[in-house]
């Protein structure tokens, strides 16, 4: 049985002012917490690491940890 795009994770290419959808889906997974983030709610990501984050605190923590 095939999953519809609404039921699976999207693959995105993160850019400085937005993102491009490579594989359609409804959500991405936070690189820090593992929680799903609906695409319409996605606000935080790293262009350098090509990762999404659920909150600004998690994004900041990841960037500080990798520095």
- Give me the secondary-structure category: alpha+beta
Poorly predicted tracts of residues: none
Q: How can the largest sheet be summarized?
A: 2 strands, antiparallel
How much helical structure, as a percent, in the residues? 10-25%
**Rounded to an integer, what's the Rg over CA atoms?**
12 Å
**What pattern of helices and strands is seen along the backbone?**
EEEEEEH
Mean pLDDT figure: 92
Widest sheet, order of strands? 1-2
The percentage of residues in β strands lies in 25-35%
Number of helical regions: 1
Query: What is the molecular shape?
Result: globular
Structural features, described:
Strand 1 (11-15) and strand 2 form a beta hairpin. The protein contains 1 helix and 6 strands. The N and C termini lie far apart (43 Å). With 67 residues, it is α+β, with helices and mostly antiparallel strands.
Concise overview:
The termini are far apart. The strands form three sheets. A two-stranded antiparallel sheet has the order 1-2. A two-stranded antiparallel ribbon has the order 3-4. Strands 5-6 form a two-stranded antiparallel ribbon.
Comma- or semicolon-separated keywords:
single chain; 67 residues; alpha+beta; two-stranded antiparallel sheet
Which secondary structure elements does this structure contain, and how are they paired or packed?
Layout: E1 11-15, E2 18-23, E3 27-29, E4 36-38, E5 44-46, E6 51-53, H1 56-66
